[in-house]
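Fill-in record for N-acetyltransferase.
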Amino acid sequence: MLKIRNVKMEDLPELVVIENSCFTIEEAATIEGFEKRIHLIPDSFFVAEEDGVIIGLVNGPVIETAYITDDLFNYIKANPASGGHQSILGLAVAPQYQKQGVASALLEHLEIEANTNKRESITLTCKENLISFYENHGYINCGVSNSKHGGVVWFNMSKKLK
């Protein structure tokens, strides 16, 4: 059975393996990046577990702007208690668990938390091949992002919250 919970520092080794199996070295969060996120934003960093094994993750800080900026990959701060825009810097599922609803469950969990904390929207960037996945979850494609992260073309995706 799938269980989604807040991240803990001892999850770090498993998170790094999943991240590196889903993203190129240029795109993947670094160990230091994950350590900062676990320390500063555990309230918006969730892991999916099956039988005690971490199989997926979603994370990102709450930001003041409607779209992600590249500086967030290096500099983040603790989340405000309410308001702002929930960003997603990373959504990753171990390859052998993909296409089984894990990413959708993680997105849904993050959205519930974001609504509870009165966030204005959820914002993320994705590659072109994932636009339809996010559109199926209610996100709007807001066009090509200014992001140069990992040297690829990213699209801004946004979902207004209630």
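KEY FINDING: Residues 19 and 28 are 6 Å apart (CA to CA).
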